[in-house]
Design goal:
By secondary structure, the chain is an alpha+beta fold. It has helices spanning 11-21, 38-57, 71-75, 78-84, 110-120, 165-185, 232-237, 261-270, 296-315, 329-338, 349-354, 378-403, 411-417, 431-441, and strands at 25-27, 34-36, 61-62, 68-70, 89-94, 97-105, 129-138, 152-162, 192-195, 207-214, 220-228, 240-242, 248-250, 252-259, 287-291, 320-322, 343-347, 356-361, 370-374, 405-407, 422-426, 444-449, 457-458, 465-466, 469-473. Strands 3-7-8-14-11-10-9-22-25-21-20 form an eleven-stranded mixed sheet, sandwiched between helices. A five-stranded mixed sheet has the order 16-15-17-18-19, sandwiched between helices. A three-stranded antiparallel sheet has the order 4-6-5. α2 (38-57) packs across α6. The chain binds one RNA strand through α1, β11, β14, α10 and α11.
RNA sequence: CGGGGAAUAGCGCAGUACGGUAGCGCGCACGGUUUGGGACCGUGAGGUCCCGGGUUCAAAUCCCGGUUCCCCGACCA
């Protein structure tokens, strides 16, 4: 009966059970890779479409670039190649012949896009270049987990070029805000925006910013990043433009990415022991209709009503599924709860007679989440309920996060805090400090949160004066 | 890539100490009875016992090598 391991028993098993039972993904016959099944992909598509709209609304256009990257491209930016070398997949043979120059399967596209930008940008009038690309990339990971860390993963990468650092910096922050809004509004996940410490920066970036979310086991998940690449890639690839003053200048570039890892975050932030709990805005199915009957006579009358209700909900713009499978109602209730469908409409002979339906909400599992409501005005009621659930999920996740995050002022306090939550600690931005804390507590420096009150503190490791706190947590 | 566990039907597992030709629950197919919170009875299908080698009359079981998965580390979106 218990198909899903309780979260409290084994969080990792729970996560894998939910993915399997909710029919989101399967293991591929290739090490470290997954197959995303229609239900999981549909969820990804919904998130993607929302994000894509946000990119378009901020002036970006989509394009596509090759998945093969000449090794020499990667080598042009010293830090970049150093960072990615250990996880590259490299093609050395093509068409049966050894290649003159090996091709890396893209681990990210800064280099090949930089090469193209160098050709496209001639004048300040060509700037900014605001392009996004939806693709998959490959990183040879040693230890994988569905959605959170797979050898091939789907994501988007935005790449922009600007005339001034002021412009590129604004872009970096604008897209970080886009990610935050997406997490909050669509995924109902509160995130902490911040600047990555020196040791956690993207390979080749001057600065990396991230959004960090707290999972149900109080571990952190980096859910999106935005990089200020300075002029590093512009120098490596000669991305130059002639400015108004007729002098040649190097561009300032940015890149930003968000992967299907966010899907893992949705699972881990909202899921419970019954399975998934999907935010209504991104749920592939927002309302499941379960008909209830005991014989053919009841079936025909119930199905007639169910079909009519289905139509009114669908016409109201909802993603609705009429479950006509030959299973018992009880089975279906549990099945849709496992899959995280936010709302469920149950229609039986009594409802037909009373011109009512039972309306159940996933965020309150079982009978307590059920109410008998009139069929009249159902679409409006369901839409209001979905809004309520969407807001409620965010509220719950935010309360959970806030209850498990602590400000600390000593190393001992930090050690205790990261045992079961996030810690905000004053530290200097020094790779050695990050490394020491990581080694001794397993917690990493997630970022220096942007929204924090500046103050005068002493670094908990070095004792040096510092003006901001960093967020520490054990992370995925 | 280091340390630990595991791999037998779609899923969860037993069988392995002591070698003898593969089983249970759920799921699946069909028939019937059921149906307002994971229904029941009957019949049936489904297996390279992770892979490769070795020992043996005989290997899921013993030996050697490899692969994959899970947990904990190092690395990362």
């Amino acid at each position: 009966m218990a198909k899903i391991t309780p979260r409290s028993k084994d969080y990792s098993e729970w996560y894998l059970d939910v993915i399997r039972e909710a029919d989101m993904a399967d293991y591929a016959p290739v090490r470290g890779c997954i197959v995303v099944k229609p239900y999981g992909w549909s969820l990804y598509e919904n998130m993607r479409d929302f994000l894509d709209k946000r990119f378009k609304d901020t002036g970006h256009s989509n394009a596509a670039f090759p998945m093969f990257i000449p090794m020499s491209f990667l080598q042009k930016e010293a830090e970049h190649v150093k960072g990615f070398s250990p996880e590259l997949a490299i093609v050395t043979i093509g068409g049966g012949e050894e290649l003159e120059e090996p091709l890396a399967v893209r681990p990210t596209s800064e280099t090949i896009i930089g090469y193209m930008y160098a050709q496209w940008v001639k004048s300040y009038r060509d700037l900014p270049v605001l392009i996004n690309t939806w693709n998959s990339v490959v990183r040879w990971e040693k230890r994988t987990k569905p959605f959170l860390r797979t050898m091939e993963f789907y994501w988007q990468e935005g790449h922009t070029a600007h005339a001034t650092h002021e412009d590129s910096q604004a872009e970096v922050m604008r897209m970080l805000d886009v990610y935050e809004q997406h997490a909050l509004t669509e995924c109902a996940i509160p995130v902490i925006k911040g600047r990555k410490s020196i040791s956690e920066r993207f390979a080749g970036a001057n600065n990396t910013y991230s959004i960090e979310a707290m999972m149900g086991d109080r571990k952190a998940l980096q859910s999106g990043t935005s990089h200020d690449l300075g002029q590093n890639f512009a120098k490596a690839f000669d991305i130059k433009f002639l400015d108004r003053d007729n002098t040649e200048k190097l561009c300032w570039t940015t890149s930003w990415g968000l992967s299907w890892r966010m899907l893992g975050a949705v699972i881990m932030v909202h899921g419970d022991d019954q399975g998934l709990r999907l935010p209504p805005r991104i749920a592939p199915i927002q309302v499941a209709i379960v008909p209830i009957y005991r014989n053919d006579a009841e079936k025909s009358v119930v199905m007639e009503t169910a079909a009519r209700v289905f139509k009114t909900l669908k016409d109201a713009g909802l993603r609705v599924k009429l479950d006509d499978r030959e299973e018992t109602p009880g089975f279906k209730f549990n099945d849709w709860e496992m899959r995280g469908v936010p709302a469920r409409v149950e229609i039986g002979p009594k409802d037909v007679a009373n011109h009512s339906v039972a309306l159940a909400r996933r965020d309150v599992p079982g009978k307590p989440g059920k109410a008998f409501v009139p069929q009249d005005g159902l679409p409006e009621r369901v839409i209001a309920l979905l809004d309520e659930i969407q807001a409620g999920l965010l509220k719950q996740a935010t309360a959970f996060r806030d209850a498990n995050i602590r400000e600390v002022n000593t190393y001992d306090e930090l050690k205790a805090a990261v045992e079961d939550g996030f810690a905000l600690a004053p530290v200097v931005d020094d790779p050695e400090v990050d490394a020491k804390i990581k080694e001794e507590t397993k917690a990493t420096n997630r970022n220096f949160p942007l929204d924090q009150a500046e103050g005068e503190w002493k670094c908990i490791i070095t004792g040096k004066p510092v003006r901001e706190r960093a967020l520490f947590a054990r992370a995925y």
